[in-house]
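User: Sequence in, structure out. Go.
Assistant: Echoing your sequence, followed by the structure tokens.
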Amino acid sequence: MNTPVSKTMGQQSGRRSWAEPWKIKMVEPLAVTTREHREKALAEAGFNTFLLKSEDVYIDLLTDSGTSAMSDRQWAGMMLGDEAYAGSRNFYHLESAIQRFYGYKHIVPTHQGRGAEHLISRTVIKPGQLIPGNMYFTTTRVHQELSGGIFHDVIIDQAHDPANPHPFKGNIDLDKVQALIDRHGAKSIAYISVAGTVNMAGGQPVSMANIRALRALCNTHGIKVYLDATRMVENAWFIQQREEGYAGKSVAQILKEFCSYTDVAWMSAKKDSLVNIGGWLAVNDWDLFEELRNLVVVYEGLHTYGGLAGRDLEAMAIGIEESVQDDHVRSRIGQVQYLGDLLTAWGIPIVQPVGGHAIFLDARAFYPHLKQIEFPAQTLAAELYLDSGIRAMERGIASAGRDAKTGDHHYPKLELTRLTIPRRVYTQAHMDVVAESVKAVWDARASARGLDMVYEPKYLRFFQARFERL
């Protein structure tokens, strides 16, 4: 955001600073701990940052899910919650906002994104069907597999190379999709699973040209296109900035066009929509909507609240409207870019180009002396916490889990540690602190020792697994 500084300073330096398009009304104190304290806390957490207590964390970059700061309008909306069990007016506000900005006809609220993933997977996937997608996401894949589906990665090859500068590394490889159709037949494919700003690839976007071409291919074969819209607002901003023909369009216009090429969307509103809890499913087909509306009563709550309070529905409706404002998205991604630029200038290996919601450190490049089975990304997250109290997240072999048939680890090509930036929470000064801590860990990289997994839960192990130093 190019907000001018004083005319004199501008003439002297040629610099144009930017600032967040909000001001702070309330603060939450943060505790700065000693290294001795952090060593004890990390050992008690089994070297898993998910198991740390938040009171032991200084700057929390574990996730952007439910960690954003709500606006004064959202907090005011919370006071207007209609807590009627059925027919809450807040549901209709949410329905209207989704229809307006995302363009789908029928809406089913859920308590969060994985509730929506569960409902759609249970409804449309038949055992043995294939689900091609642009790289897996942890909760999405587990719901697909629990319903009997078989995930196939059809993202472009450039997405698996952290240093590749391709502007749309989230794109679907249409040749890979066609090869699956030729080999197994169109009826064997439940749907194409498309994620905006692909998380596991480093928050990398999908181009409008790619989704349009995928839609045409799927129309030819009668295949549906389903969208994980969790971070589609950020994806729309990248299209605006990087794709020819979209510089003059608003984020809201781009978002709605992108969604028009898909049949179904699910959303973890805890990300782009700036709320602490909530999600939704949106479809255009009435018969599918009827089935989902029936199942949500079984698993989530009545179809007009989906496991949420009326006040949460209202905050979500307002958050959707705020999320598509260009100034907001420019500032949100600008803060991520600022941190990425600092690390890049210092020669620290990160996924390029910088994505929308996080900086992804290349743990393989940090620790080439560690084997992948020694959990280098988990090790890097642990070292960052020990250095400064910053909490990051592993996105590598621990997150990838195991092959359901062989029982062996999945070995992803990307071994990343994610620094996830909550929306409207931290300042530029916090990003400076984060960058300096990463630099300190980078400088001490040769002395790092890997980890051994000593406890592993059955599902989504990265949340609760425990490790020990090798």
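User: And one key feature?
Assistant: The chain has two domains: 18-64+326-469, 72-323.
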